[in-house]
Amino acid sequence: MSSPQSFSLAGRVALVTGSTTGLGKVIALALGRAGAKVAMNYRNNASRAAEAFAEFQAAGGAGMLLRGDVTSEEEVSGMMAAISAELGPVDILVLNATPAQPQKPIEQYDWALFQQLFEFFVKSPFLLSRACLPHMKQQRWGRIINIGSEVLARGVPDFTAYVAAKGGQNGFHRSLATEVARWGVTVNMISPGWIPVERHADDPQELKDGYRALIPADRWGVPDDVAGAAVFLASDAAGFITGQNLHVNGGMTVA
Question: d(Cα 255, Cα 242) in Å, to the nearest integer?
Answer without folding.
Answer: 22
